[in-house]
Design a protein that fits this description.
1 helix, transmembrane helix, 84% helix, 0% strand, CHP02808, transmembrane, mainly alpha
């Protein structure tokens, strides 16, 4: 792999990390809210 290819793959890899971490956090938060809403009393 050439130096240019290596640089490109490093940029892509490090650029994808925040997206992966934040999307994972958002998914866990959404599932948690959904599970908590199942147990909530619907009558007010």
């Amino acid at each position: 792999m050439s130096t240019l290819e290596s640089v490109i793959w490093h940029i892509l890899g490090y650029g994808a990390m925040p997206f992966i971490i934040l999307s994972g956090f958002a998914l866990v938060a959404a599932v948690s809210v959904w599970l908590l809403s199942l147990g909530k009393d619907k009558e007010v």
